[in-house]
Specification:
Layout: H1 2-12, H2 14-38, H3 42-53, H4 66-110
Helix pairs in contact: 1-4, 2-3, 2-4
């Protein structure tokens, strides 16, 4: 329940909402490029986009076409900051909401 409340409050804030939209656009763009240039399935393309931009990089997929390789270089430089900002923002927002919720519970228990 706390996670759902955190997500809803996260989406109500314009700055966070814009970051979510930007993140989704970057992932969809990367997935589309890999789907069409590398011939991967949509799921494999999304998977590669996520593991690449989160710097996990399992190595089970790699672009084979010259355009795919050049795109990946640009995609990483542009996308990694966006994805890491998104992950950091979600973590900070969740942490602040958790702390706020704990403080509310403590105040209630003292009364």
């Amino acid at each position: 329940m706390l996670l759902l409340r955190t997500i809803l409050s996260f989406l109500r804030d314009k700055e966070y909402r814009d970051l979510v939209i930007t993140t989704l656009v970057v992932l969809v763009l990367g997935s589309a490029v890999y789907h069409y240039t590398e011939g991967w399935t949509w799921l494999d393309s999304l998977y590669f986009s996520v593991i690449t931009l989160t710097t996990v990089g399992y190595g089970d997929f790699a672009p084979q076409t010259p355009f795919g390789k050049i795109f990946t270089i640009i995609y990483i430089v542009v996308g990694i900051g966006i994805i890491l900002s998104f992950i950091d923002s979600v973590y900070n927002h969740f942490s602040m909401n958790t702390l706020e919720r704990r403080n509310q519970l403590r105040r209630r228990s003292k009364k």
